[in-house]
Amino acid sequence: MINSKKECENFVSYCNYPPKGQRSFGPMRAQLIYGSDYYENANSQIISLAMIETKEAVQNIDEILSVPNLTGVYIGPADMSSSYGLKPQFDVKDDVVYSNIKMIAKKAKENKKIAGIHNGTVKYAKEMIELGYQFVTVSSDFRSMSTYAQNIVNEMKNKEEIKSSSSSY
What we know:
The chain has a 4-stranded parallel sheet with strand order 1-2-3-4. Helices cover 53% and strands 11% of the residues. It is of the alpha/beta class. Residues 162-169 have low confidence and may be disordered.
């Protein structure tokens, strides 16, 4: 969660190795996968997305997007809704949060940064792509697994109801 230019500068510096940043060295596993020259090439592979989830972050979006080496921003609409005193929700359409969502996509594009957003549905994610979002996530692992599990339970209950209603007992 990033709320100011200074927080964003610190965040980006923690993501990158010197001379771009101040990330500590210790990528033993990364060197096994990417080779012994990982350190020399890592900064060109690092993606830094500042979470924009508060009223303060929205007010400071121009300064946040101006930070060198920031790859982009990622919107958390539920937290942003909460920050404005609204019920946390995804797939926002009709309030100040939706205005922010549209504005941030536009400003990210103007600053040549990636705009990302979390979505509750595929339909809304496609609408966000139309607005200019280049990185969209839909649902979550927890929601996906629990929805699938609930569908199985519902299906089993329906089969049990069918079975019991057709029983000869």
